[in-house]
């Protein structure tokens, strides 16, 4: 938007807001004031330290370790549905930052930070004096944050531990830039209009008129009035308006004072509508806050844990990793997009939304332990399956989506994410998940309900996925705003040959051919179950023919390994990469070549010692910081480990599992991040964090369960009433594993796995329903 247009829009908005405020009269606790939204912050962030994450439902909060959101920090804020609701929230005591003693976000939706006053020296007679260590710390401060699906509530409690009375001066600066998540990530765009901030001594409303004619509002209400202080412009431009509240409390020795505020969002009138409520049904400028249910989050997590298969081992650190993964999966639950639907979001903060590939792989990883995730994922993605050709969104009939966004850039059509379908692998992965879900649940009604969607997905593979009729599924974007690379390694430089040259589309990825191979075999089994023998025979034949073509086209004889892809000229993109590990998982790899693949995967160039690198270190293009050109992704390693186990390489699989578990111990709260840097274990004594990795990330949390599946050899045939334990093999750091309430169809079992003198035994502790347990060595 041109500067002149912005200024005219802001002028019109200010006039309209002032007129509406005048008509509306005084606010809930005094007169309304309006402040210029185009001013700067009080202070810039310096050292943000570790990020604190809280989330429940579709709302999440990212702060620094002090509990603050700085307006010039990258990504910190309060968010809902891809929109930032608070871009600044800075608390000060006596004009200075408090000192952090301890912080906890262990409950995921509730966090507590313990602080004390800094060393203050306001004047020579100040009774809070500098001291050594904590001797000068006389104030105890607690910041309690609670996130519900609709609101953030923060409570600050200050206790005077001095032996005399003291006056406490507290200030809180707030700002809202209403930024779309893509904007926060750095996507350049012309914004809408920030309206003047409406405020009273105990309430504030931030307003923004988007370019999509959508007015958003962020509301704040305080438990007691404060002194409203306009923020002076700063020399650093700030997209959001800032206001500051001040409270001064006399505190007797030993006394405490508590302040609470609630933040939530609402949709206002159309962008050209009035700024406050009226008789025509437009929403009020200062609505009542939503109800805050203290026990809502606790009840949700309690129900989630009780309905998830329990795992306990004799390694307490591994137990902590499992517990963290269970809790993180619950943290990532989002509501929608349709009524009564929910799904696992991909990751906080950048991908807190529905992704086809990520949601499906997470569901596959966790299927034995929580089959509900798979059923919900299948249903949500089927409801959004493409039905027509839409080049802007890279959509084709039968295709499963890549990504769904609900922010301004998607609503305004600036980006095609409404939803966007530029994923080459979501569709065959959805079919794999359907087959795997039937294996564990035996739910024929599920298959029947989704069979039309499965047939549409199959048609997409054959008619749209194979763009040039060569028998391989390949991608090339149609949308000018679409992804260049459309596999899970979707950064622009991810697909290369051994000389470091980037492949040109259309590109056929090795692992995608494996997904299609596995999907067709699984769909053939479902077709037989339904009595469609002709379809079953055809699909099995097509899968076997694909395997033969794959061997001929992708095998690189001089490297004894598979190319990561074929480019548009059918030349091999033959850089050594992790793709072949996922090919093992799908079963497309020839048994005669599996040993070569396993050896290459665990070679020093590809295996960092903490997991599998995406790209081998001894070739052009390697970068230990490269998003897909040298980093380690736990989910990728988990699938490769399952592939090693599939081909009988149990010790190698356990080695991989153990090393990723060791990596988890170096991350905060035993939480595996989206990825970490690919430095060699010999030169980096601990895994090096990737600077902007999502954490938590769904398929990283799911990796823990995939590792368990691999070690225990869990495989179900629920329609036959059978649980198969395929070569269970515990590593030497794990002596005992107890699995409680493992569901197979309508039955359930409790199992004990025990390692003794290098051999793993399995015992059925309890069985409910009709299920047999078979151990296959």
N→C terminal distance: 67 Å
The SS-based structural class is alpha+beta
Strand content: 15-25%
How many DSSP H or I helices? 16
The number of strands is: 32
Give a short account of the largest sheet: 10 strands, antiparallel
Unreliable stretches covering 5 or more consecutive residues: 1-29, 38-49, 128-135, 233-239, 273-279
List keywords for this structure.
single chain, disordered N terminus, 10-stranded antiparallel β-sheet, 777 residues, 28% helix, alpha+beta, 4-stranded antiparallel β-sheet
Q: What can you tell me about this protein's structure?
A:
Residues 1-29, 38-49, 128-135, 233-239 and 273-279 have low confidence and may be disordered. The strands form eight sheets. Strands 1, 7, 8, 9, 10, 12, 13, 14, 15 and 18 form a ten-stranded antiparallel beta sheet that branches. Strands 2-3-4-5 form a four-stranded antiparallel beta sheet, with no helix packed on it. The protein has a four-stranded antiparallel beta sheet with strand order 6-11-17-16, with no helix packed on it. The termini are far apart. It is of the alpha+beta class.
């Amino acid at each position: 938007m041109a500067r002149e247009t912005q200024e005219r829009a802001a002028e019109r908005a200010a006039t309209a807001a002032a007129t509406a405020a005048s008509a509306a009269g005084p606010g809930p606790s005094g007169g309304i004031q309006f402040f210029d939204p185009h001013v700067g912050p009080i202070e810039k962030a310096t050292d943000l330290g570790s990020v604190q994450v809280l989330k429940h439902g579709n709302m999440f909060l990212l702060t620094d370790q002090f509990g603050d959101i700085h307006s010039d920090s990258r990504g910190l804020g309060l968010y809902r549905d891809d929109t930032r609701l608070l871009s600044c929230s800075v608390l000060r005591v006596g004009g200075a930052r408090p000192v952090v003693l301890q912080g906890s976000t262990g409950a995921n939706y509730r966090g507590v930070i313990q602080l004390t006053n800094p060393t203050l020296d306001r004047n020579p007679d100040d009774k809070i004096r500098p001291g050594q260590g904590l001797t000068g710390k006389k104030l105890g401060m607690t910041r309690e944050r609670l996130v519900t699906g609709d609101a953030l509530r923060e409570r600050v409690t200050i206790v005077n531990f001095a032996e005399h009375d003291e006056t406490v001066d507290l200030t809180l600066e707030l700002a809202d830039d209403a930024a779309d998540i893509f904007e926060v990530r750095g996507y350049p765009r012309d914004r809408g209009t920030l309206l003047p901030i409406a405020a009273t001594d105990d309430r504030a409303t931030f307003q923004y008129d988007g370019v999509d004619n959508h007015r958003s509002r962020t509301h704040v209400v305080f438990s007691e009035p404060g002194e409203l202080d306009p923020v002076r412009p700063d020399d650093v431009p700030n997209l959001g308006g800032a206001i500051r509240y001040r409270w001064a409390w006399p505190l007797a020795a030993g006394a405490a004072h508590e302040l609470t505020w609630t933040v939530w969002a609402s949709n206002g009138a159309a962008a050209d509508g009035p700024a406050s409520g009226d008789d025509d049904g437009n929403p009020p400028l200062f609505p009542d806050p939503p109800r805050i249910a203290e026990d809502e989050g606790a009840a949700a997590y309690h129900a989630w844990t009780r309905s998830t298969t329990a795992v306990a081992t004799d390694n307490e650190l591994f137990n902590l990793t499992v517990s963290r993964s269970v809790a993180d999966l619950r943290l990532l639950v989002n509501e929608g997009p349709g009524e009564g639907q929910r799904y696992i979001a991909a990751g906080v903060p950048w991908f807190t939304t529905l992704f086809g590939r990520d949601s499906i792989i997470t569901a596959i990883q966790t299927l034995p332990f929580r089959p509900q995730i798979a059923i919900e994922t299948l249903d949500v993605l089927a409801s959004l399956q493409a039905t027509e050709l839409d080049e802007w969104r890279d959509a084709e009939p039968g295709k499963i989506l890549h990504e769904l966004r609900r922010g301004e850039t998607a609503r305004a059509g600036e980006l095609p994410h409404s939803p966007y379908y530029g994923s080459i692998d979501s569709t065959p992965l959805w079919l794999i998940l359907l087959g795997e879900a039937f294996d564990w649940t035996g739910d024929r009604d599920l298959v029947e309900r989704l069979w039309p969607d499965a047939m549409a997905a199959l048609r997409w593979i054959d008619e749209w996925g194979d763009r040039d009729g060569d028998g391989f599924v390949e991608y090339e974007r149609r949308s000018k705003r679409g992804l260049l690379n459309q596999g899970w390694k979707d950064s622009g430089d991810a697909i290369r040959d051994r000389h470091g040259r980037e492949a040109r589309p259309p590109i056929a990825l090795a692992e995608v051919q494996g997904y299609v191979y596995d999907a067709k075999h699984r769909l053939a089994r479902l077709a037989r179950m339904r009595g469609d023998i002709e379809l079953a025979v055809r699909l099995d034949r097509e899968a076997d023919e694909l395997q033969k073509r794959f061997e001929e086209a992708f095998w690189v004889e001089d490297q004894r390994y598979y190319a990561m892809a074929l480019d548009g000229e059918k030349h091999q993109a033959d850089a050594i990469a992790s793709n072949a590990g996922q090919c093992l998982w799908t079963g497309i790899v020839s048994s005669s070549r599996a040993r070569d693949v396993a050896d290459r995967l665990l070679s020093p160039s590809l295996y960092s010692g903490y997991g599998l690198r995406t790209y081998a270190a001894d070739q052009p293009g390697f970068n230990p910081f490269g998003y897909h050109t040298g980093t380690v992704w736990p989910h990728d390693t988990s699938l490769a480990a399952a592939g090693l186990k599939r081909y009988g390489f149990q010790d190698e699989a356990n080695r991989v599992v153990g090393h990723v578990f060791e990596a988890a111990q170096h991350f905060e709260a035993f939480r595996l991040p989206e990825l970490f840097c690919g430095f060699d274990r010999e030169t980096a004594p601990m895994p090096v964090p990737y600077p902007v990795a999502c954490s938590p990330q769904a398929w990283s949390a799911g990796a823990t369960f995939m590792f368990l599946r691999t070690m225990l050899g869990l495989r179900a045939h629920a329609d036959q009433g059978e649980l198969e334990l395929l070569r269970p093999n515990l590593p030497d750091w794990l002596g005992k594993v107890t699995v409680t309430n493992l569901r197979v169809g309508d039955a359930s079992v409790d199992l004990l796995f025990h390692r003794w003198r290098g051999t793993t035994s399995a015992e059925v502790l309890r069985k409910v329903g009709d299920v047999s347990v078979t151990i296959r060595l």
